[in-house]
């Protein structure tokens, strides 16, 4: 399977490395194609590992992982491009941690909102898809809550 990883940090590299080891073709995406970390990862992981921009990785993958820092997730997904995200499963493992005041980090989004709610609202607004926090996506931009389900995001055509 072709999998796109958005993000070059420890989480993205760990997930990407395991997926390559399992036999998947993986492209690691960053802000710019040719990122030093992404190039080093691709060279270290063989023929099934490649690197590119967020848009290239999103276009490449049948399934996508958002492994970006939570404070940069919306910008990264916008850079990936709505057309490249359309119809893809996006597994969001980002944490909205704010390190600007040192350790321990604070949550950059909390209480009455969440990154899991903001991503589909901001990234796919033009496509008529909205909040997929705990339910199913519908073409009219609404979601239907399902109690007891884990948080997920699935962008559909």
Task: Please summarize what this structure is.
31% of the residues lie in helices and 23% in strands. The protein is α/β, with parallel strands linked by helices and 157 residues long.
Which secondary-structure class do the elements indicate? alpha/beta
Helices, by number, come to: 6
Q: How many DSSP-defined strands?
A: 10
Shape: globular
Q: State the order of secondary-structure elements, H for helix, E for strand.
A: EHEHEHEHHEEEHEEE
Helix % is 25-40%
Assembly type of the chains comes to single chain
Average pLDDT confidence is 79
Q: How far do the termini sit from each other? A: 20 Å
Give the percentage of residues in beta strands: 15-25%
Low-confidence stretches: 126-157
Q: Order of strands in the sheet with the most strands?
A: 3-2-1-4-5-10
| Rg value | 16 Å
The main pleated sheet reads as:
6 strands, mixed
């Amino acid at each position: 399977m072709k999998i796109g990883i958005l993000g070059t940090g420890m989480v993205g590299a760990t997930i990407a490395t395991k997926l390559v080891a399992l036999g998947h073709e993986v492209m690691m995406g960053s802000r710019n194609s040719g990122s030093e970390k992404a190039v080093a990862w691709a060279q270290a992981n063989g023929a099934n590992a490649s690197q590119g921009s967020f848009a290239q990785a999103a276009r490449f993958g049948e399934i996508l992982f958002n492994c970006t820092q939570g404070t940069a997730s919306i910008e990264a997904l916008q850079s990936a491009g709505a057309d490249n995200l359309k119809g893809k499963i996006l597994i969001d493992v980002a944490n909205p941690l704010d390190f600007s005041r040192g350790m321990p980090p604070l949550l950059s989004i909390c209480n009455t909102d969440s990154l899991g709610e903001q991503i589909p609202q901001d990234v796919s607004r033009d496509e008529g898809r909205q909040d997929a926090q705990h339910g199913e996506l519908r073409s009219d931009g609404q979601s239907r809550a399902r109690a007891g389900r884990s948080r997920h995001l699935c962008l559909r055509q």
